[in-house]
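Hi R.,

As promised, here are both runs. First protein below:
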Amino acid sequence: MSSQPAVSIIESNPFISQSNSFVHLPSTNIINALRHLFNTLGRPPVAPPVKVYVPDVFDRTDPYQLHYFLFQCRFYFRSGPTVFKLDFDKINFVMTYVSGMVQDWLQVVLEQENQGVHHAWLYSWPFFVKEMHACFGIPDIVAEVAHSLDHLHMNSDDRITTYNIAFLQYSTVRCQTS
């Protein structure tokens, strides 16, 4: 513990001046101290951008994968909201991640566009998703979801969260296709 009074510490400090019984730090010293602190500590670390994987290619060999493929696409769209503002941009992106029968179908559709036959679903994301489900999804999604919900049960070693997630997955599939 220092035996020196606080007043003499303040008076002996060249960076501190006194006037009207208040202690003042000269503003240039504060600015210089802040600059030194900033240069010493450096800039705060910047978080690297999140790497979002592109969706798997969808080829219709497994119609049950369509829902997951479209989920992957929506997830990718969220990583670049300024890039995928327009439905047209989303649809064009999806068109690059299909192959097989789906790619053949889209090729015919684009040829028809060149000939003046226009498809509204090529310019609307919700209509495009419905068209994809109608052409390449599960043939009778309503029956499929009803069957899955009828047979949904909770195992003795499951948590309620597992059951709730399965229920929400089935009900979400139904809502997105109607």
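And here is the second one, sequence first, then its structure tokens:
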Amino acid sequence: MDFSINVATGWPRARVAVRRGTLAFLVAFLALAGTAIAGSRQLGIPATFEGGTTTQFDSISVANGSFRADDSRAASGSWSGKAVYGGGGANGYARGHLKVNWSAGDTVRYAELVYLPKGFYMALQGQCVLMRADNWDVYPNDADRVGIGIYRSDHKGHLFWLNESEGISHEVGPAFTIPAGRWNRIVVEQRLGTGTSATSRVYLNGNLVVSTTGQNFPGRPMDKIRYGIVAIGAGIQTNPLTLWIDNARR
């Protein structure tokens, strides 16, 4: 058995050469595999921008920027989503939202295709969060957050969790480089939890870049996940930022 990457999903896929006498073994193996993943949440239908709209998201939110369908660059099909932060240092974001219902103990998966243009890292002066689940609508003063962000300290991707009242971002696993000038598929798989039973994996373009155990979740349920330029370093980020996303899933 060897492995290739499914371009449409970003997940590894197996190529199996079936020979006489092995079919029964494969059937049994697949049955066991199905039992092993039963109860975990699979990636759902992606939110895309085909047709030139953002209507596949449950909602969008924009401040000091724009979030719209764009046909100048696409990972597949003819459209992608262009997220723009206008710069100037004021708080801003450009993001699409999907509803979730995540609690400690849940196994969740979320993903997106993201294109960082050449020059993105030169323009980046603070953090830029690319995907984030949260409960801000319920707890606007001390929201819990889980997601993927690029840090200003090393210009690398980080899986993180935090509670806003603490003011501390807890990193989960090692940092990883998200190349600019190409489409990148980021897939996160987590068993959410506040203790050692929690697990986290991140795949970048089909390669496992984070695999760790330990707390990855603040504790309170989350009801929304956001994609795009989800957050920036307000007061620090004076340069404009632009990126493209596609096939946002949860």
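A quick note on the second one: The domain at 42-249 is CATH 2.60.120.200 (Jelly Rolls). Let me know what you think.

Best,
J.
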